[in-house]
Queue: 2 jobs
Job 1
Amino acid sequence: MTFEPKILGFLCNWCSYAGADLAGVSRIQYPTNIRVIRVMCSGRVDPVFIAEAFIEGIDGVIILGCHLGDCHYISGNYETELKMKMLSKLLNFIDFSDRIRLDWVSAAEGNRFAQIVGEFTEHIRKLGPNPLKEKKKKIEILDNLNTIKAVLSDRRLRGLVARQRELTTEGNVYNKVISSEEFEKFFDDAILNELLRHKIMIKIREKGKSVPNIAKEIGIEPYKVLQHIVTLRARGWVDVDEINEEIPTFISIKEG
Ligand code: FES
């Protein structure tokens, strides 16, 4: 049986949705695989929505907004670019980054809308179904997607994304402007650290575990796990569960 991808499309009301409408009234053919959610601005698309879509088994997600400089809310689509960049970096860790596409379609570009949807559908068809559908990998992929959703929901990375333009153009509280390269490096480190911290949180959500056991489960050095546990304890997310033969186990105490 041929695989028919399920594509979810977020379209901004003022440009891309109107472009899709134009494609419809002009009878321009495009694949019927896409299901559309209309949002007022592409900036309204929270990356968490996209992680949730993958958790629900969607094969690919497309986000379409007004061309840069044309957003009806001035800078909404610039914010979208930054948010999707963060999402893409995170999804890269689990080989999902090819399953999203951000692009721009104006109200006058019915043909462009149809072309982008056609290209993306074909691209996802070649990639194959959402790996969550493979029984063997289901638990591992679900764990990874839930970890990414937790990272995306956390205010730390969101705060960094929100301040990126300010930090790289106006400067921090000491008026120091950070170069884009410096920010990228700092941001990449922050992404990796938050990902590992949330992975640890998921591993100790139901049962306390020792540092060596956590390290074995997530495949990193025990000293790194310990560093993250110290940070997580300082945040009040983790506590000692019990101590067996002088070896402590740690458990998540974070609500929600
Ligand atoms: S209104 Fe279209 S991207 Fe903001």
Job 2
Amino acid sequence: MAIITTPALVLRTIDYSETSLIVWLYTQQQGRVHVIAKGARRARSPFEGALEPLVLGELVFYRKANKPDALDIAKEFDPIDLHRGLRQDLDRMHRGVYLTELLGELAEPDAPNEEAWTAIVAALDALARGPASELEVVLFRAELALIASAGLAPALRGCASCGRPDVGAFSIPAGGLLCEEHARRDPAARRIPVGALKTLSALAAGERLRVGREIAGAIRGLLDDFITHHLGKRLRTQRYLTSRRPQRQRIGSPT
Ligand SMILES: [Zn+2]
């Protein structure tokens, strides 16, 4: 049995027995891990309520050797960033929860990925503290970075089939943009406004830019379909992004 200490982000928690939790975390050193946190549901928990989704902390856990199906055992979790700004604003929280669900689905267990780690930490920080006007762009960039970190980045620099630079359509099965000729042959190809194509490329390159409502809508639809195609299912939290609830609603901190 090895003991491992690593920065970690709580993705989700599942009640387990009267007093314990099973916790999915994304860790910098080990990628996605599943630990059992004994006593975490007790009033006087050794984890002091820090094992909540969206909390970034330092995790110490015991790794069970030679048993791939055995749960690792959490020993300590010291919060580094509770991301309070995310929890106090539904619009920010929905985006944060969605990104952690996306990461949890894309990440293989025990496969560390520095690119994914950097992307999620930066995105949650920006969602918690950044200006409200930039939330959409933060989300798009994070989604594209997480998709890329899983090796699924769409071809955005030219036609996915022939590499030609003049493109006008997007095909999810073909894996990205298509030129006129290849778009004609691909029944799944869809026309995308030129502005949306350019914006998508700029976002994938990590540029900070303003995105108008119409272009944001086109990109949202495209990313939803792209992600659903690759995961083979629609993410539970995706609906929060398309059907907006009243914004700026205050909610209490989760207990
Ligand atoms: Zn082509």
